[in-house]
Amino acid sequence: MNITPIIDKCNEFFQLKLSEDYFNIVYLKDRKEIDKYYGSKTASRLIWFTNKKDTVYILDKENFETESDKKYIPRDYETTIKHEIVHLCFRHKTWAGRPIWLNEWLAIYLSGKLEYRHPNILKFSEFLSFYYEGGKSVYNESWLIVKLLIEKFWTETFKNLIEKIKLLNFKQKDFEFLFKEIYWFDINYENINKYL
Ligand SMILES: [Zn+2]
Fold this sequence. Notes:
The chain has 8 helices and 3 strands, in the order αβαββαααααα. The chain has helices at 4-14, 31-38, 74-94, 100-111, 138-152, 155-165, 172-183, 189-193, and strands at 24-28, 48-50, 55-59. The longest helix has 21 residues, at 74-94. Zinc ion is lined by residues 83, 87, 104, 107.
């Protein structure tokens, strides 16, 4: 798979200068290999993971359906690799990869998967709980909160926020403090819901 376009996109968005050689895509042939690289026994739904630095591990498409409980869809397979590359770039940019809700949304946005994850949000009520860890519903609100931050405010303001994350102590309250410094309001549901 040609990963140049997604790397170019990330470099432009995150103001990075990562070359293609920086990344490794490792195609694992079966469950045994997944377990070996993952470091423990994995469930059949686990088909990819990344290390903390530069490598995406993914089950090879040849054995995709026999070694997992997922269906092989070429477009999704490629989007997954792009999605994981965005995570690696975000981690490179911010040093910690948090907030998770921001990290996940950017991965969806930049990998081009945005169009098929659009639950209708009438009120924000949970995205802030996905700061340190993800979860099944992490995508529900995060797509809209970041879209809102980009569209209702300046894109440059949003990029400024991302730029400064690495200066933080990685704690949620430090991020909240930074957010206020940049957006001039507290990041909480009451304030964010006003912009819906
Ligand atoms: Zn992700």
